[in-house]
Specification:
348 residues; alpha/beta
């Protein structure tokens, strides 16, 4: 089992005996409705009247895409040649073409729960020209994810090495975290969009003892405010914390060790940016690096590449991987040696 603070030593021992990591991605599976507002949200806000907020934005475009945090992460990993196990609940209306899409991208969907009377999750999101978002999320069938048990899934696939606990029904998040720990399986805690809804005690139970905690800079501050834990106290409760900073890259922190800083891959100047799913793509890349036995730094570099590629695509599962382009962009950001080491692992 790969444990965070001992990562560099464990990988050297495991590379000859562990041909792949069985990674389960728990969380939402949704249909995304993505809209674009040509102005800026902040220009429409009247500071002394926010308690009576009533706004309507006339949008320029609507895109309907496959989404959901867990599905987005699993898609990215499958794209990189891994075989992630997607765990979540979908509605009786879950599109057949979405199922085929996931299977075609190497995602194991055999453990999805299908609700008999609820609809699949819906994510409705409007982005402005400053890349800010206003979104609503309909949970629907996701509430039944609390009824999914991990042990039979682990038995079906021959054991699990890592469970990703991403935004989901809060009871399901708590259950999957506790079950993974009981099974002796490492946890990557990714509470992200659910932090606003969760209480401080609920957040504590999700991240305390996690091998990895992945958040953006705003979410990190929100965790500290809601839990009452300081930065050092959070680090004392996880092995590794990854904090993303958008175009400023990311930081990787382990208690008592030097911080690792990874710059972001530069975005292309000739494309329209759409931020939905960029964070999920980062996680897919980071997990791909871990599954290949690469260092934390290299894993975050892969995450940065996939995150930017998702940012440059309309929809969270619309980007593709091409080896020559990937090598060029990685070399531009991190040097030829890093690019060669990473691209050598990519099977596409």
């Amino acid at each position: 089992m790969i444990r965070g603070a001992h990562y560099a030593h464990d990988v050297a021992e495991l590379q000859e005996t562990l041909p792949f990591m069985r990674i389960a991605c728990t969380g939402s599976i949704a249909t995304d409705y993505l809209m674009t507002f040509p102005g800026r949200f902040d220009e429409q806000l009247v500071g002394d009247q926010l308690e009576r907020l009533s706004l309507s934005f006339l949008v320029d475009s609507l895109e309907v895409r496959r989404g959901g945090v867990a599905a987005n992460i699993a898609f990215g990993m499958g794209l990189m040649g891994h075989r992630p196990i997607l765990i979540g609940a979908v509605g009786h209306d879950f599109p057949a073409d979405y199922q085929d899409w996931l299977r075609d991208h190497n995602v194991d969907i055999a453990s999805l729960r299908v609700s008999s009377d609820r609809y699949t999750c819906r994510f409705l999101c409007t982005n402005d020209r400053a890349e800010s978002q206003i979104a609503s999320f309909y949970a629907g069938a996701m509430e039944e994810a609390r009824d999914i048990e991990l042990a039979p899934i682990a038995e079906r696939v021959g054991g699990l090495d890592l469970v990703v606990v991403s935004p989901n029904d809060p009871t399901a998040m708590a259950r999957h975290t506790a079950e993974a720990k009981a099974l002796g399986v490492d946890v990557l805690a990714d509470p992200s969009q659910q932090i606003a809804r969760l209480s401080g005690d609920e957040i504590k139970s999700l991240i305390d003892g996690a091998t990895y905690l992945v958040v953006n800079d705003y979410e990190r501050s929100l965790i500290e405010r809601k839990t009452g834990w300081s930065d050092d106290e959070v680090l004392a409760r996880v092995d590794i914390r990854v904090t993303t900073h958008g175009p400023k890259g990311c930081h990787i922190d382990c208690a008592g060790q030097a911080r690792i800083t990874v710059d972001a891959v530069k975005v292309r100047a000739d494309v329209e940016l759409e931020p939905t799913g960029a964070g999920d793509a980062f996680r897919a890349g980071f997990l791909s690096g871990l599954a290949w036995g690469l260092s934390l730094e290299r894993s975050a570099q892969i995450g940065s590449l996939l995150g930017v590629m998702a940012l440059e695509s309309i929809g969270p599962q619309e980007y593709t991987i091409e080896r020559t382009s990937a090598r060029h962009r990685l070399a531009g950001a991190y040097g030829a040696e890093a690019a060669a080491e990473i691209v050598a692992k990519v099977s596409v």
